[in-house]
């Protein structure tokens, strides 16, 4: 039985920025459909239900079209329109490109790019049909710079950042808004999962995911096109826009090369 509250769909909601985005939505009175590839999505749901919200969960690999189809089926079974879609699922991969396992490379591309745009294609069409809805992408300032020793991840985020701006423009004559949240290094499981704990960026102080999520949520509610969280990241992104790519790649190497944190 569908509830009467507005509905938010959040991917990658078991931890990190996605968890904090879902938490904010719960506090703001949304019912939730949340998905992640980890079993602890159920623990996250238990926390969100304390606000009295209806929370449906799906543990699925959103790198696969089947995983996204299962999530969309859950949305359709709920019977309500999606008011907010937060396309947050994503992960990274450290080390040199030629030293990485290609199956892991493919999974990063399929999670960050293919699964993300497939879900947005499905739910975005529904939003356009009723001329209402909000979409938030979790991009990254990593998309502004060539990511030496994190090359595939940064390239996927460059795609997401660019795609979000393009989709926003295509929908400018509708009431569907598209916002791209572009955080910097954030204190989540990201660097551990990417095997980057021995790097300079892996060991550096990072932003609070709750702060990042709040900045993104507020920007989405205002209908902003993009938001970079944190003044240091704003400065870094501004510098990146006027710095040659070769220099950016060298700077990124210092942050992400294995052993740089020793």
UniProtKB/TrEMBL annotation:
Protein family (similarity comment): Belongs to the short-chain dehydrogenases/reductases (SDR) family.
Keywords of the record: Oxidoreductase
Annotated organism of origin: Tianweitania populi
Gene Ontology molecular function: any one: oxidoreductase activity
Classification via PANTHER family: ALCOHOL DEHYDROGENASE
Cited Gene3D superfamilies: NAD(P)-binding Rossmann-like Domain
Protein known as: Oxidoreductase
Keyword Oxidoreductase: yes
Alphabetical list of Pfam families matching this protein: adh_short
SUPFAM superfamilies, per database record: NAD(P)-binding Rossmann-fold domains
């Amino acid at each position: 039985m569908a509830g009467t509250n507005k509905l938010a769909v959040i991917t990658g909601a078991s931890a990190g920025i996605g968890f904090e985005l879902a938490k904010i939505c719960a506090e703001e009175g949304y019912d939730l459909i949340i998905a992640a590839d980890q079993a602890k999505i159920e623990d996250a749901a238990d926390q969100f239900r304390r606000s009295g919200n209806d929370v449906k969960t799906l543990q699925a690999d959103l790198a696969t079209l089947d995983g996204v189809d299962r999530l969309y089926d859950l949305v359709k079974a709920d019977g309500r329109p999606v008011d907010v879609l937060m396309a947050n699922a994503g992960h990274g991969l450290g080390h040199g490109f030629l030293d990485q396992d290609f199956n892991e490379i493919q999974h990063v591309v399929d999670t960050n790019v293919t699964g993300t745009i497939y879900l947005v294609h499905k739910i975005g069409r529904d939003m356009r049909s009723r001329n209402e809805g909000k979409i938030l992408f979790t991009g990254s300032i990593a998309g502004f710079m060539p990511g030496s020793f994190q090359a595939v991840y940064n390239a996927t985020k460059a795609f997401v950042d660019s795609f979000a701006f393009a989709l926003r423009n295509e929908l400018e004559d509708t009431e569907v808004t598209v916002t791209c949240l572009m955080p910097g290094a954030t204190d989540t499981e990201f660097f551990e999962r990417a095997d980057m704990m021995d790097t300079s960026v892996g060991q550096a102080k990072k932003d609070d995911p709750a702060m990042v999520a709040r900045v993104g949520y507020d920007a989405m509610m205002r209908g902003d096109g993009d938001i970079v969280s944190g003044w240091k990241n704003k400065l870094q992104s501004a510098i990146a826009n006027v710095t040659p790519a070769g220099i950016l790649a060298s700077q990124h190497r210092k942050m992400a090369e294995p052993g740089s944190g020793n």
